[in-house]
Every structure is written in C-alpha cells, then in structure tokens.
Write a structure and sequence with these properties.
By secondary structure, the protein is α/β, with parallel strands linked by helices. The chain has seven helices and six strands. Helices cover 30% and strands 19% of the residues.
C-alpha cells in the first residue's frame, strides 16, 4: 500500500487542509481516503479557502490531533511510501511525515520517457521534460483526454486526482524509485 497526499495552505503558508488517498501498485484503485481541516488555520484565509468544504472532513481539529490520527491511519494500512505532485512542497509542509519515503509524481508525469501522452511536437528539454504545461490540470487533461477537467484545489479531491494520474501513467513501483525525495538532512548542506 502507498498513499497520495495533498495539502492546501493559507496566505501565511500554513497548512489548512490535508487530503490522503491510499492505494496499491497492482490496481491503483482508491482503497481508503481521509480528509483533514486544520484549526485554527482554516480561518486564516488562503487562495483556496472556498474549496475547504467541497468534501466533508473526516476530522476538523488541531495540527497535533491531525498528525496523530494521520500517522495512525497510515500505520493501519502499512503505508511507508508517500506520493505527491510537486512533492517537495508537501514534504516541506509536513515535517511530521518526513520519516516516510516520499516520491514526486510530477517528475514522471512531465517526462516523455514516462508519459506516452506528451505530444510529439511538445516543447521539451533535452532531458525529455516538458518546458511548461506540466501542472496537475494539464497533465490530467493530457492523460485522460478530458479537456474539461478542472483541478478543484481541495486537498482530498486533488489527492484522488493525483492517484488517477499515477494510474493513467501506468508506471510500476520501479519507475518511482528514480523520483524519491531525499531526506532534508541530505538536501541541506
């Protein structure tokens, strides 16, 4: 089992919500999910405050209570691997979960080598990475063919959509070993 995680933050860069979707590499099917709204941060305002209640939260509580429940939730499903789109953002905002192994979905989705739906005429770097247009919304549209898809910017719906991106990429666990986030101690000098 693995988990896909997404956070939404306030104008002050505080985590105000966390969404998590649990799956496995055999099916990429949604097995379990959890949605947290963090108090008092939910009241501090942010770019996506209006989407906080698109989904009913499983928990609306302090960060400490959220992290305690979230760690228990992950342990219940034996999750040791966390995936996120632009994972370094969520990794840095959730130091309580840095003991887990983190992987960046975007670092596969944006590359020709892993994403067969990148158009042949797309503007790419020599490495095969798209030069632009590799956000969640663009990649989801590219992979699904659904040009009407809109990212909701709700932590739970985004986590589920990012799991769907992984399913559509059809890459196994081995491909993701190339996009592992190094622990903070290894990143900073």
């Amino acid at each position: 089992m693995f988990a896909v995680i997404d956070t939404e933050t306030t104008w002050r860069d505080e985590v105000m919500s966390i969404g998590i979707a649990v799956s496995d590499f055999d099916s990429f099917a949604l097995f379990a999910k959890r949605y947290y709204i963090l108090t008092p941060y939910k009241d501090h305002g942010g770019m996506y405050t209006d989407t906080l209640y698109v989904c009913t939260p499983d928990w609306e509580c302090s960060r400490a209570a959220t992290m305690k429940d979230l760690r228990g939730f992950l342990e219940r499903y034996d999750v040791t691997d966390i995936f996120a789109y632009n994972a370094l953002f969520d990794y840095r905002h959730l130091p309580e979960l840095q003991y887990l192994d983190w992987y960046d979905i975007m670092k596969l989705a944006a590359y020709r080598q892993y994403n067969p739906k990148i158009p042949h005429n797309a503007d790419c770097c020599a490495t095969g990475r798209l030069k632009s247009g590799y956000g969640v919304e663009s990649i989801y549209r590219m992979l699904s063919g659904n040009t009407r898809y809109r990212e909701r910017h709700n932590a739970l719906t985004d986590a589920v959509d990012e799991l769907e991106i992984m399913r559509m990429l059809k890459q196994g666990v081995a491909a993701y070993s190339n996009v592992k986030i190094m622990p903070v101690a290894a990143i900073t000098p």
